[in-house]
Write a structure and sequence with these properties.
The protein is an all-alpha fold and about 190 residues long. The protein is built from six helices and no strands.
């Protein structure tokens, strides 16, 4: 569901697909429901019986993974909202670079989800490489947005919204890395 939200968020930013934004909001509501269900199930598991220390660590790690995934869903929803607000500023000169950054982030998310589904803690290095690329994209795009400093109110607002877009994507990537690191700790 989170991966689908990231795909839809890309379409909002790429082609101003305003039909995708409501889908993301509905999907985020479902992600939130599932997050709370999983959190409750883990809580019940931890409190219902005495578990060996290793299993307690595993359950706690997966609770954190689920929370990280829920946060990525929230960032997708925020990207959709920012995309809607950026509609008057289309076409965006940095659009292609932002979409590349988002695609790298989506690759991170796919690798993180593979880590969870395959219980594979070895993907951390691959994720770190993608995360470094996303971080480089973030820094480069921030510099481009502020050089020259926007002079009109409309261009300043668009630049500010784009900074928020970049921040969402960068945070999504960090949460994906967190997921893989938690799986790696459990697998170790």
């Amino acid at each position: 569901m989170v991966e689908e939200s990231a795909v839809l968020a890309r379409s909002v930013l790429a082609v101003a697909d305003m039909e995708a934004a409501p889908q993301i909001r509905r999907g985020d509501d479902q992600i939130d429901i599932l997050y709370h269900e999983l959190e409750n199930n883990c809580t019940q598991l931890l409190t219902a019986k005495v578990l060996p220390q290793q299993q307690v660590r595993e359950v706690l790690s997966y609770i954190h993974c689920v929370r990280d995934l829920e946060r990525i869903g929230d960032y997708c929803k925020e990207l959709a909202e920012l995309g809607e607000r950026l509609l008057p500023s289309q076409p965006l000169p940095q659009r292609d670079a932002i979409l590349t950054m988002l695609d790298r982030c989506r690759s991170l998310l796919a690798l993180a989800l593979d880590c969870v589904s395959e219980d594979d803690g070895s993907a951390g290095a691959r994720l770190q490489n993608f995360d470094d690329l996303v971080d480089s994209d973030y820094e480069l795009l921030l510099e481009q947005l502020m050089d020259p400093v926007p002079t009109t109110a409309a261009s300043f607002e668009a630049s500010l919204l784009l900074v928020l877009v970049l921040r969402c994507i960068e945070r999504m990537a960090d949460h994906a890395v967190n997921v893989s690191q938690r799986v790696a700790r459990v697998s170790a």
